């Protein structure tokens, strides 16, 4: 009876927490939709949505409808899926490695994406023009996605032996591939002209300015599928917190869980980075923040992290548009300014605990 009451209370607390976070996300969405150089009020936003649903609405300016529907709404939705997926990938990788300092970049996704992106940007005039004309505006996103996925597969293969994956070797392989990718990026930039270097620098800082419905359909589908799969592993991640041996004895297929979470983390992060550019610290900050407030149970941690990751990305994008208006900062700068101090706080906290 007491156990049943405890489980019921915990479930109600979980639902309440998710409802509160969801409400904050709705507020962030509205703020993002009304923020920008072209003024659109909240009532006009609601009116435009009502019009799209077929309801009779009067006095809607065509310009405002076009700005909201073709520019701001795709940007908001892209921020939600990218921010949420980065946070969920961070939760999964931290749970998988049992290391709270791990983030998606550790498995080489970001560096691989950046390497292939700089190759397209720098050498497009000499070797990439046919490729770019064939896939049009998707040359950069596609190359970045492929680079991130290839880097992750290589890191995973280096860490695998006899069907088993050594987590320590995987982290070291990720560090090595990140270093190699960084060196090759520097070499590629050396041969680039000023315009190519400027374009790559802007891409590497991260931005949601290139959002469109076409990109959202393709990239968003990959991210949502990957995120849903990662969200389906709360029990396995809770078992991994006890150690791989204990997880195995609890009936968890350890190798299958490792491979699945690594592949779909890479797919989600690579797809997001391919469109937005490198956006750091979301996968590190959000899991810690949610874990501090709601605890380490992955049944709550995974969905809450997705919502908070979306809120963080939307908030960062709003700040990027407001701080230097009418110009715009790169959203990666904002997430780094938020994430770096938080990362230092985590390190100092660990240091004090180990000293004690």
From TrEMBL:
One of its GO terms (biological process) is siderophore-iron import into cell. GO terms for cellular component: plasma membrane. One of its GO terms (molecular function) is transmembrane transporter activity. Signal peptide: none annotated. The chain crosses the membrane at residues 16-40, 73-93, 105-127, 133-156, 168-192, 212-233, 261-286, 306-324, 331-348. Keywords: Cell membrane, Membrane, Transmembrane, Transmembrane helix, Transport. It is found in: Cell membrane. The keyword Cell membrane applies. PANTHER family: ABC TRANSPORTER PERMEASE PROTEIN MJ0876-RELATED (PTHR30472:SF25), FERRIC ENTEROBACTIN TRANSPORT SYSTEM PERMEASE PROTEIN (PTHR30472). This is Hemin ABC transporter permease. The lineage of its organism: Bacteria, Pseudomonadati, Bacteroidota, Cytophagia, Cytophagales.
